[in-house]
User: Fold these one by one.
Assistant:
Number 1:
Amino acid sequence: MSGPAADRLILGSMPGKASLAANQCYAHPRNLFWRIIETLFGIPADLPYAERCQYLAEQGVALWDVLRACTRSSSLDSDIVEGSIVAQDFEGFLRAHPRIGVIFFNGAKAESVYLRHVRPVLPDDLATIPTVRLPSTSPANASIPSPVKLRQWQAMTVPS
């Protein structure tokens, strides 16, 4: 999900089962993503999905996943089979969105997959786009309290 004027990109790893079933990013009811977005950008988490995405794009934020495909036995990032990883076409995406000035990772797995499978094959001008890892909004990342996650996610509100 992105608009042509996106200046920030949020990357997840791969949608979980609830998100795939709903055909929506961060659809698991306990995932904090849309509640954090509501607090940061004033986009109500209970709006229909298409409207939330539209409003997020109007804020200059693109939303995507590092992986185009992978094999895993559950929704957990830790279950992703390394040899099954197929990354998205980042060169194409970033060329189509030349204003993106910072890439934010929703969790450590998104960052590690990007750094291992994507950044090394990007041309220099794209490989140098700054990156920031944010704490995962997944309910599996319950060790970090919600207020701490929200404070760290506030980095998203500063356009690049």
Number 2:
Amino acid sequence: DLDQSAIDLVVEKATTPDQEAYSGFDGTDLAARLRARGVRRVYVGGLALDYCVDATALDAQKAGFETWVIGDATRAVFPEQGAAKEAGWRAAGVGIVESDEVG
């Protein structure tokens, strides 16, 4: 039920078969494209909390964006790792919100 009518930017990652790319920032120009649009805050959701969401959130924070993970918009491959990932985000300055708090 995602309304895609407002999507005007698509960034492809993991386009090299022999290289892992969990983060949306890894090997892409995402940070530059966001800065060019005046973006200062990034919200991250999707699959999987313990891989792509984790890497993307940490890289967004490292790139200087105010970063939030949308807790109810992601799931872990290994749910037992969720608490440790959340602690790592908090330690790195990444916040956690629920979808009804985004805005």
Number 3:
Amino acid sequence: MARPTPKNNEKILSESEFIVSKTDIKGKLIYGNKIFIKISGYQESELRGQPHSILRHPDMPKAIFKLLWDRLNAKKEIFAYVKNICKDGSFYWVLANVTVTLDANGSVADLHSVRRKPSAKSMQIIPDLYAKLLAEEKKSGMDASIKMLNKILNDKGVSYDDFIFDLQH
């Protein structure tokens, strides 16, 4: 599926809207609620079986997704701010909570994501932070971007999780 060309047109979730999706362990979509389908601009049939990454906006640093996959592979949940791209090139920001579902043997069965509108406070910080991480990534690679993020967090004296939670409240 061809990636849409980004447009400077933001779609904004309401406070009461929650996007829900489920993927298999490789990140291929197996479920999306009506809000997810509506905001993405795709038909449900276009999404099912596709990698969730078809919604990845080019403004997103790979470092954030590495952190996400590292957590999920360790069977831990993660909260992350994500900028997604819609079928028409519009974009939307979310605070995503991604968790693993374990089967009876303790193996990962699937991934479940619930996303909500990010706080105004987070949107004053995250877009600029991600732009810096992305610039570092383009200049020196993803590992350099991860190092930059870790340095920022260390300088603030906070963990990644505390940083994210503080921005949402």
